[in-house]
Amino acid sequence: MFSAFSARGRGAARTVAAALVSGLFAAGSIAAAVPAVADEAPQHTGGASATLDGLTTFDRAVLHDDGLEHELPAGLFEMTVDGGGKLKTYCIDIHNPTQEQAKYLETPWDQTSLGANKNAGKIRWILQHSYPQVDDLMGLADKADTGPLTERTAAAGTQVAIWRYSDGAEVEALDPAAEKLADWLEKEARNVEEPRASLSLEPNAVSGKAGGRLGPVTVRTDADRVTVTPPADAAASGIQVTGKDGKPATSAVDGSELYFDIPSGTADGSASLTVQATTSVPVGRAFAGVTKSQTQILAGSSQSTVSATATATWAKTGPIPALSAEKNCAAGGIDVTATNKGDEAFTFELMGFKHSIAAGESRTVTVPVPEDQAYDFTITGPGGFSKNFKGVLDCKTTGSAGSSPDQPSSQPSPASAGGTSGGDENLAATGASNATPVIAGIAIALVVIGGAAVLLVRKKKTAAPEAPSSPESPSPQD
What we know:
The protein has helices at residues 120-128, 137-144, 151-166, 176-188, 234-237, 446-450, and strands spanning 17-19, 21-27, 49-65, 68-81, 86-91, 103-107, 170-173, 199-202, 205-209, 212-221, 226-228, 240-242, 251-252, 257-262, 269-280, 286-289, 296-301, 303-315, 321-328, 333-340, 346-350, 353-357, 361-368, 374-380, 386-392, 442-445, 456-461. The chain is mostly beta strands.
């Protein structure tokens, strides 16, 4: 229920924007006790953001890996949603531990390991047909012919079945009933489509000249209604968020088109709007860590706070850029899209390559990022224009556990988070490990790596900012 504008002057610069990029890939390790949180919010396509509380409902399983056996807990995690709500999730990367109090964002499948997994839809089927979505454990046991199930064994059996499809793992539950449930779920699973985001805005960045409406920004949501609230100084500045009809918008529904209405004479600047709702996040949505932490998939949601943000940039003349970014797992990098609604070219350097976006054009540059590596880079432009993109590229399952330590760690082990070495069951909910590699430490400049990199570039014409709005498009179906 919050929407904020933040205007900042851009001066009267009319020359071509010479934007620079500074960036770091982080690698190495830090002490496991350090919470896995980002200094600044990374780009987010919208939906729920949450903090991992730990593994809460679980039993034991055995992973057979490279001739070795690893006993590990298997079951449900719990997360606390920013703004209110609780999520229950299962792991979809068995060899990769979680980090204590890791921050997670609702994420499309194609920006995780699920994007390249032909069995991703079967994982969603399992979630829909087992615990906790099916909380009648007697009925579930009868249908699967398992014998008596408890919450712990039902969670373990469900997690084991998911691992067989998410990681191709040779894993079995120790409890006989849990193992029978895993076998039944694996056998019965059918491919089901990915659920759409709980809330998103398309696109999440627009630009244009002052004296008109910038947009449209289309709302996509499963919620009945979302709120759009302008800031306290909106009346003083004259900037409004409107609907397709040009009237101020304080709420919206799926398919609604929103616009930034910038009065003539408004100083060059930028603003952002945020839409928010309380809804149940669809089962099967992926949750990726802001820092390196085991990817999760949603098994259940309370009524939770979800949000999405879009930004607008405007000027009287010159280049007027709009920048957005998202992970491109298929290409192994980050897609940075620059759109120029100005009347002069927008020119910037990215990883040693110079790019010029003509007026009315859009171009996407794919920045190569190594798997499991953090990225952090900023594109700057005239009049204080600046856009930062950061996160971790985590597009693949880790692969193999390797050999187990001879002695259990004194700290919670990778197994406590769905990883693969022996650990104390009582520590399972903490989800940290002193043997866990995490992202931090040594930094390598992007320009050093980028000198030898090949950037994938796509270019398309975009409509002029004054073009009439398009009709509302139908929302995708689950």
